Amino acid sequence: MAAAEPAEEPAEELAHAEVLELFQAALARLVQDPLLCDLPPQVTAEEIGSQVALEYGQAMTVRVCKADGETVPVVVVQNASVLELKKALRRHIQLRQARQGGVQHLSWRYIWRTYHLTYNGEKLADDRKKLREYGIRNRDEVSFIKKLRK
């Protein structure tokens, strides 16, 4: 006969809302750090990770100039591909829209069918190609250019 297992003490259970509140409070304390002070109040763990990676030189900021003239700073890892830049841009825009309560859905398929990203007049046509292969470095600017109809 097997020996009876010792009774485990019941773990303190927290409701999801309570855990979320504790997590948000901890994040709020984190963003008071001078390194992270320019992050928004409803910061995500992903944004904190990106900011720390920037500080340690593991990431870079690529400024994406939209057709309306607005420039969006997007953080990507140093050896990011064009596709990773596109995904980071999408995530940045989605977070900003959620915080502002604006349009919640954009058709990114439509955007990438309608626009190219360009750097120094060259289309970033190959999603697998690394940004550095195009000569893109920290703080460089890429632009949306409307595709011409065939």
TrEMBL record:
GO terms for biological process: mRNA splicing, via spliceosome. It comes from Taeniopygia guttata. Gene3D superfamilies: Phosphatidylinositol 3-kinase Catalytic Subunit, Chain A, domain 1 (3.10.20.90). It holds the Pfam family Ubiquitin_4. Signal peptide: none annotated. This is Small nuclear ribonucleoprotein U11/U12 subunit 25. Coiled coil: none annotated. It comes from the Eukaryota. One of its GO terms (cellular component) is intercellular bridge. Residues 60-150 form the Ubiquitin-like domain.
